[in-house]
Design a protein that fits this description.
The chain is α/β, with parallel strands linked by helices. The protein has two domains: about 80 residues, no CATH class; about 50 residues, no CATH class. About 20% of the residues lie in helices and about 20% in strands. The protein is built from four helices and six strands; from the N terminus they run E-E-H-H-E-H-E-E-E-H. The strands form two sheets. Strands 1-2-3 form a three-stranded parallel β-sheet. Strands 4-5-6 form a three-stranded antiparallel β-sheet, with no helix packed on it. Strand 5 and strand 6 form a beta hairpin. The two termini are about 20 Å apart.
């Protein structure tokens, strides 16, 4: 079964562990922690990192898992380019970086997906 790995970089101070190599992923993404209003407000200021800190993290973690090299994405790369699954099973989308909408997975199809995210930006993120 193909596996993808998603790491979110917080202000905790760690390096990417070699344990990931055991999973043998086909894709590996590393995201700068993104503020999600109403979801991670309580700890965001404490755990968030600056672009400069993210760049430093990226520079010391350019390791590969076999042939797979991590793809690093800043906050602005993620805005309007991903769906997130809420704890209630709803699709969360973020068009402007601050407001999130919830949509039932049953209501998403090829015709209305562009109302939930920037399709071109999403395609670049793949």
């Amino acid at each position: 079964m193909p596996i993808g790995i998603l790491d979110i970089v917080l202000r905790v101070g760690f390096t990417l562990a070699t344990a990931r190599a055991k999973l043998m992923p086909e894709r590996w993404k590393v995201f700068q922690v993104l503020h999600i209003g109403g979801q991670n407000d309580r700890y965001f200021n404490e755990l968030s990192i600056t672009d400069k800190e993210f760049d430093h993290f990226k520079s010391v973690n350019q390791v590969c898992i076999g042939e797979i090299k991590p793809v690093f994405e800043r906050n602005h790369d993620m805005i309007d380019s991903y769906f997130m699954l809420s704890s209630g099973g709803m699709i969360m989308s973020n068009r402007d970086g601050t407001n999130y909408s919830l949509t039932s997975l049953d209501n998403i199809d090829k015709q209305n997906i562009s109302q939930l995210l920037n399709v071109q930006k999403y395609a670049r993120a793949l």
